[in-house]
Amino acid sequence: MSSCSAPARPSAPRSWNDRQVLAALDRAELLAALRDASPGPAPGAAAHMAAVLLADPAFLGDPAVLWAELATGSGGADAVGLLLAAIATRTPRTDGPVPPDAAERLAAAADLWRAALAAGLPSGALASEGALASEGAFADTGLYEDLWLSLTRASAEHTPALTDADLVAERAARHPDSEDALLLTAQLFTHPAETGQDTAVRRHARALLDAAAARPADEHPAALRALREVLVNSGDIDAAQA
Fold first, then answer.
1. Cα dihedral sign for 79, 85, 88, 89?
2. In this structure, which of 9, 20, 162, 215 has its CB flanked by the most CB atoms within 10 Å?
3. What residues form DSSP beta bridges with 93?
4. CA dist 12 to 17, 36, 90, 130, 215, Å?
5. Tens digits of per-residue pLDDT, 91-141?
6. What are the pLDDT digits (tens) for 20-57?
7. Helix 102-118 vs helix 63-71: angle between axes, to the nearest 10 degrees?
8. Measuring CA to CA, how many Å separate 44 from each of 39, 83, 104, 106, 165?
9. What is residue 182's DSSP assignment?
């Protein structure tokens, strides 16, 4: 009597767009495929996984647990950065077309970002060296301002080397009444900005300082002093008079 072998399990690269097949994959194999993914313009494991998670953040269970599992093992930290970058680039933008599911995708992106911050990831894991972007890529997403400021500030505290630091500083500079905006901008000075961004970061930081200082004295955010100090320490002596 001949025996029939079980059908081969579909491999991840051929199955990313099928949610049912994705769910059937062995979790360890799925995470390994994400860790082995390489950054680049072509859609890959992180890109397809980001699309699935934005449709359902709990598709693979508790997102914080997923981030923690993904970060373990060789290549885990880079995999976290790549997946977070892929989520950011698929989040509706402030100046782009508004998809029918924009509200749901924005809420999902915030949930996934918040979960990454709560996952106890190693320092630096929120920004992959090989990623085209990371948490800084959320700078022009359509997230509500207070939510964006809070999450970006927490990200900067966890991983100071934000990508797109100039865009982050530009958006933060629009909120001279916000403690989070001033503290976030001050945090950008704790790590050198990407090449070519330093001048823009300083310009936006000084604009934020001047706008915050111009408010009535009883409305000055407490973080005004922190931003003034980092600017002075970075060589902007005139900031002491702001």
1. negative
2. 162
3. 141
4. 10, 11, 21, 21, 55
5. 999 887 888 999 999 999 999 999 999 999 887 777 654 443 455 688 889
6. 656 666 788 888 888 886 555 445 788 888 989 999 99
7. 50
8. 8, 10, 23, 22, 26
9. H
Query: Token match 């767009």: residue?
Result: 17
DSSP-H helix ranges across the chain: 19-24, 27-36, 45-55, 63-71, 76-89, 102-118, 145-158, 165-172, 179-187, 198-213, 224-233
Question: Is 59 within 8 Å of 20 (Cβ atoms)?
Answer: no
Residues 6+ apart with CB under 8 A from 66: 60, 115
Residue 157 Cα distances to 9, 13, 17, 128, 172, angstroms: 42, 35, 35, 16, 15
How many Å apart are CA 81 and CA 163, to the nearest integer?
Answer: 11
The backbone torsions φ and ψ at residue 103, rounded to the nearest 5 degrees and listed phi first, read: -60, -45
